[in-house]
Design goal:
Elements: H1 3-15, H2 17-52, E1 56-61, H3 78-90, E2 95-101, H4 103-113, E3 131-136, H5 142-149, E4 155-157, H6 162-204, H7 206-214, H8 219-260, H9 270-295
Antiparallel strand pairs: 1-3, 1-4, 2-3
Length: about 300
């Protein structure tokens, strides 16, 4: 590309500082909002993975003290336990992992989880029946496993997790849809705002464009400085948006949420660098495409 093209672009930026500043600010605000939407989506995905890893189906086996009708014959036999284990193995890959929790292990886990609760002093070994703890590859399919073992020989109960997890799954899906919608809406807004600003710039320089057409300049020669100006302004706005996103994420997550809730799944300011390349590439594509389409009407013979 000829050096004069860059010189023309620089001259255009210098002579139209207010237009360039408008493009920069519009890009910064639009990409910042888009970045917020993308970060929120990453947060939702991370929370989803965090909670999904903790969803387990518990299959409680009968004991001598079980009061369920299905346990009228007494504690589950070894054959009944092995039957349940074999059936779980057949349900792979939905069943991701299975481990057996004895009465002693269930008691120890309860004492640890509720060590500060008055209930801990009233529970004895054997009060909590042994169980199979089942980790699922898709936790939203927990009813498939639960229904397969409800009422099975030797099985005391399979707790209904619908009331516990259905609201969680529903909330996660709603938040995901809202974040995707916000990202799409912001992207459309960015295109419209950038197109409006470029159209204003082209309108203010329509006489210059007409003169260049009269002296035989090609459409490419006329269009290229505009595109370079728009890309340069867009990249400056994108870098400012990325910087603002990093400061926001650092202040909210690194300095507050992660400090107060270190064991919870929160994103960090490092996630900004994951989405930054997409924002930079996106603004270049957006600037080139929008400026090309917007300038088309001024370049028609």
């Amino acid at each position: 590309m000829k050096p004069s093209v860059f010189a023309d672009a620089w001259e255009g930026l210098r002579r139209n500082k207010s237009i360039a500043v408008s493009v920069i600010l519009v890009t910064m605000i639009s990409l910042y909002l888009l970045g917020v939407g993308l970060l929120a989506q990453r947060q939702v995905d991370q929370m989803k993975g965090y909670w999904y890893d903790r969803v387990q189906v518990s299959i409680y086996m009968c004991t001598d003290t079980s009061a369920q009708p299905n346990c009228s014959t007494g504690a589950a036999t070894q054959d009944q336990r092995e039957s349940v284990a074999a059936q779980l193995e057949e349900m792979e890959p939905l069943v991701k992992d299975v481990y057996w929790e004895s009465e002693e292990e269930a008691y120890s886990r309860f004492k640890q989880d509720y060590k500060n609760s008055p209930l801990a002093g009233h529970i004895r070994v054997g009060d909590i029946p042994p169980s199979y703890r089942v980790q699922l590859s898709d936790p939203e399919e927990f009813e498939t496993v639960a229904s397969a073992f409800e009422g099975a020989p030797g099985v005391a109960s399979v707790p209904n997790l619908r009331e516990v997890f259905s609201p969680l799954f529903r909330a996660i899906n709603i938040i995901t849809a809202v974040m995707v919608g916000l990202a799409v809406l912001t992207l459309v807004s960015a295109v419209l705002l950038m197109a409006t600003t470029i159209r204003q710039a082209a309108f203010t320089r329509r006489r210059e464009i007409a003169i260049m057409k009269l002296v035989g300049a090609s459409n490419r020669t006329i269009r290229t400085p505009f595109i370079i100006e728009t890309v340069a302004s867009g990249l400056i706005g994108a870098l400012m948006a990325i910087g603002l996103l990093w400061v926001s994420a650092w202040a909210l997550f690194d300095r507050y949420l992660l400090q107060e809730n270190s064991g919870t799944a929160f994103i960090s300011s490092n996630d900004v660098w994951v989405i930054a390349p997409f924002l930079l590439v996106g603004v270049v594509v957006l600037a080139v495409g929008t400026s090309t389409v917007t300038l088309w009407r001024y370049l028609r013979v």
